[in-house]
Amino acid sequence: MRPNVITEAGISTRLNQWWGSIPFITSGVILICGAIYLVCLLTGYDSFAEICFLPSVVASRFQVYRFYTSVVFHGSLLHVLFNMLALVPLGTELERIMGSVRLLFLMFLLATTNAIFHLIIAFLAAYNPLYPLHFLVDECSIGFSGVIFSMIVIETSLSGVQTRSVFGLFNVPANWYAWILLVLFQFLASNVSLLGHLCGILSGYLWAVQLLASWTIILFFY
């Protein structure tokens, strides 16, 4: 019996140490998304039509709140678990580099710019004269993954890492990492928003360039 007690205590200690190593804003986002999913599960709420990012409704009714509600809601346990586990290393590293307040502000900006890119591209694709894709303006999107794709691009730019591991199976050039994940998720998972992830990557590049420029100026004057 004694070895089992030691093993259980060891697991509990390691979990506490792991959770304690996650900084304030990153752990806060995990708790918020987890709590929202738990409330939805307990109340049986599974119709996200009023909170998802729906381009046609956002544009026609100017429901800007969907920019942010769509980010913190998730459709399944695997959905929220996968997103939050992906957030832990990214958020921890960016919060270490940038600080908690700046990371919180960055997440807000990323959710905003992701949604704006999503709106623009969805309507351009839906009403282009050559091959209109009307379904894109009626696609209901939820989840934190768009922001995570943005954070992947930003963290890669700030860290200067040269390669990334894809699911621990093989390494790829860091600059290709987000794009490879974009393609893989379309093949490996169902009900994945290609446009939501794409806009996350584009938004990430936008802020990565600005952050790098700002840091260069600060270091130059310092």
TrEMBL record:
Its main location: membrane. The chain crosses the membrane at residues 21-45, 65-91, 103-127, 133-154, 166-188, 194-221. GO terms for molecular function: serine-type endopeptidase activity; signal recognition particle binding. Residues 62-212 form the Peptidase S54 rhomboid domain. The keyword Glycoprotein does not apply. The keyword Metal-binding does not apply. SUPFAM superfamilies: Rhomboid-like. GO terms for cellular component: endoplasmic reticulum membrane. One of its GO terms (biological process) is ERAD pathway. It is found in: Membrane. It is a multi-pass membrane protein. Gene3D superfamilies: Rhomboid-like. Keywords: Membrane, Transmembrane, Transmembrane helix. PANTHER family: DER1-LIKE PROTEIN, DERLIN. Belongs to the peptidase S54 family. This is Os03g0651100 protein. It comes from Oryza sativa subsp. japonica. The lineage of its organism: Eukaryota, Viridiplantae, Streptophyta, Embryophyta, Tracheophyta.
